[in-house]
Hints:
There is one protein chain. This protein is an all-alpha fold and about 200 residues long. It has 10 helices and no strands. Helix 6 packs antiparallel against helix 7 (about 125-140) and helix 6 (about 110-120) packs parallel to helix 8 (about 145-155).
Amino acid sequence: MIVPAASAQQDDLPDPLQKQKKLPEAPSKLPKVPADRSRGLDFLFGALKAAPDDASARAVEARIWALWLQTPSDTAALLMTRAKAAMDTRQMDVAIKLLDATIKLRPDYVEAWNRRATVFYLKNDYGRSLSDIQQVLAREPRHFGALAGLGMIMQELGDDKHALEAFRKALAVNPHLEKVPDLVKTLTEKVEGRDI
């Protein structure tokens, strides 16, 4: 598009430009949009707790996972994509190497730690899985996936008390988790006994 010279008169402008003299005005009050990721997550966690039904909760949960997966690094994003592909094809050692590289590149990237914890869990390497879960929860204490994973590991290790504690924390963050309420009920009876 050619811009007329500054000295051009208004009358010299083509007819369509003369009709657009008055631009629309900006709205007097803009909607409040979370300025940063953590405030966006705060809003979504509030919405998750207040979700009226499972379908609504699943939609909010998907948005939380999408935020957790975001990274400003294209390289980290590519490594995560390849790690997921390796996990999907049961190439767990390849997935671990890719996730190691992701964590080395972006040690603040919570979801890389969580994904690697999952791979270690699938390999029954509970010690390293627990170590990665600790890293996840240090960076995002509301990570309901990591909390549920912690509960699963504790339960498999026979530590029902700590499993129950982890599952309760997961439910406090996300009351719509599948299967976790049943696990809490079963473990509550086992750990604390039944009500009389």
